[in-house]
Amino acid sequence: MKRKQQYGSVTNVTKMLSDRSYWDVESILRNRLRAAPQFVDFIDLETELKGHNGCVNCLQWSDDGHILASASDDLHVKLWDPFRHTQLHDILTPHEGNIFSVKFLPQRGNSVLATCAGDCKTFVFDINRQTENPTRRCVCHLHRVKRLATSPRNPHLFWSAAEDGLVLQHDMRVQHACNQQDNNVLIDLRNYLWVSPEVKCIAINPQRPEQMAIGANDCYARVYDRRMISLSRLGPSQLYDPREIGDGLVVTTRIDKIPNDGCVKYFCPGHLNGDEKVNMQYNFKTITYLTFSPDGTELLVNMGSDHIYLFEINGSRQPVFLELPKLPPTTNGETNGCVGGEKTKHKFPPDVEQLKMEGNDNQERSQYLQAINKYTQAIRKANNKDCSILYLNRATALMRRDWYGDAYAAVRDCHTALRLDPHYVKAYFRLARALLKLEQSKEAQLCLDELIKRFPSYAKNQGVLLLGKDIGIELDKQRVRASESRFSIYEGNYFHDKEKGWRAKATDYEKRFVGHCNTKTDIKEANYFGDSNYIVAGSDDGRFYVWDRHSGLVTASYKADELIVNCVQPHPYVCLLATSGIDNEIRLWTPKSPEGKFERKEKHLDACVSENQTRMKADPFEEMTPGQAICRAS
């Protein structure tokens, strides 16, 4: 009885788990220690696992959560007992470049692992054979192999994604000789992306293993149905279509290996879709990591030089820049709920009204991050009922803050405000201003014209006249740019026609998570945590960040590396998090007593978030030490 009381208010998860003589680990972990907010809110550093002599680029839990695997620039793979903090195995691999991914092959007793690295090679090891020699090797990739993926339901297959634009399928039941005679090519982006496509990450839907997601060196996450794709050989084929793509360049396309329309679906934040400027200067967009939610309905995407986005796999949300609601008639000819463009006073419940007032105060003090957070909390408490003013206030703060994607988020908030109240004059005005900021000048003009048409009394309003002048100036600039531009990548022939069609139909995001910085490495992860109620990701400032998945708000940040945190791997069943980065150590984080000191927890969270957004727009090499520059290759 005493022991049960001791663990009733858990203060040390690993201590509880190691006491297996009193507990059935699986039943406790699955039911009690994964989702409780009081655990997530009070995590702190449990221990450091030391043994590597280089950056630890990848971490992976075994399916049962009993073993943690790590791999490093030192070319070693190590297996750890995370509950007793001991090293179980050390494999010196034959890799000749930084190891980027390590995976347990499922249903094989935690004994068979696959690795891939910067030497373009993939190996499989069986630790039961008491030898460091791989049981399988593949050298088919032409460039660095960045990620591996497995399916929990299939112990025979795994997949590798590389910077040669290929996804290869590896079948452990079939011998492989790397002679270009095997049908092992599942996806070849070079067939419809003709300028150096690179696959950076890959994931398999745990509930629907036929769905495979890949992220590349662009802003589009692609989800394929493997059942609709046939494997092909890596070698040459006669089925090529030569085509000139501009500037005298000619590419050849495997016309038999372009996927059918129904076998792939694209996902992309609406403001990035089709925007040529997203890969200019230091604002280079690339997907560094993606993963499916445990229930298989969502896709979480960590976008380099941007934020983290959540997409609904079966969703159909399309980017909307201008889609005004029909104007319902009013009884007295006046604008419903608006006088002089202002919302008439609406009495919210006291807690919502307090949050709104605090947000207004923050906005007046130019504290836009805090204002956005207050409005978001107020919207959630109001439960979307008659809170168009809250959405518009948040849109105003987003426009003024002006971080990546803020103007588009403001457009979405303006549309929500207008759906709730189609007579909200100020929402039309803010929407037109946000569209102008997104350089959607024609749509901004149409929105302003519709405002004047629907509410003629505002035609001579000073703000409306000034906005009209600004739109006119921008339209003139666009005409000049159009006459001067000779060739556009997006409008040119750098993509197959099908690729253009898939991009045009890309599904927009449902939620956005802002706070971290992801510019210096292309292996930075983001994962679900706490039974999917939280999102966690590493950052260039040496911290990892935790977000509330439902509100999108940052809840905490922890110092976890001297330079950069790349890996954040939650335990499959318990509130336990493993992190790694540029440091040689692996760090484990577990819940502690609320009375603890929490020395690693960031006390000035808003300042860190703001600094990260400034850092995101800067040259990522300016602040880098020589050691960081070396690790930038990861």
What oligomerization state is this entry in? single chain
Query: How many β-strand runs?
Result: 33
Mean pLDDT: 86
Bulk shape? globular
Q: Whole-Å distance between the termini? A: 50 Å
Q: What fraction strand?
A: 25-35%
Helix fraction bin: 25-40%
Please compute the radius of gyration using only Cα atoms: 26 Å
Q: Main sheet: which strands, in order across?
A: 10-11-12-13-17
What would you say this structure looks like, in words?
The chain is α+β, with helices and mostly antiparallel strands. Helices cover 25% and strands 28% of the residues. Strands 10-11-12-13-17 form a five-stranded antiparallel β-sheet, with no helix packed on it. Strands 1-33-32-31 form a four-stranded antiparallel β-sheet. Helix 5 runs antiparallel to helix 6, helix 7 runs antiparallel to helix 8 and helix 7 runs parallel beside helix 9. The radius of gyration is 26 Å and the shape is globular.
Topology:
Blueprint: H1 2-8, H2 13-18, H3 25-32, H4 37-40, E1 43-49, E2 56-61, E3 68-72, E4 76-81, E5 86-92, E6 99-104, E7 112-117, E8 122-126, E9 136-138, E10 145-151, E11 154-162, E12 166-171, E13 183-188, E14 199-204, E15 211-216, E16 221-225, E17 232-233, E18 240-246, E19 249-254, E20 264-267, E21 287-292, E22 298-303, E23 308-312, E24 338-339, E25 342-343, H5 350-364, H6 368-382, H7 388-401, H8 406-420, H9 425-437, H10 441-454, H11 462-484, H12 497-504, E26 511-513, E27 526-529, E28 534-538, E29 543-548, E30 554-559, E31 565-570, E32 577-581, E33 586-591, H13 605-616, H14 626-631
Antiparallel strand pairs: 1-33, 2-3, 3-4, 4-5, 6-7, 7-8, 8-9, 10-11, 11-12, 12-13, 13-17, 14-15, 15-16, 16-20, 18-19, 21-22, 22-23, 23-26, 24-25, 27-28, 28-29, 29-30, 31-32, 32-33
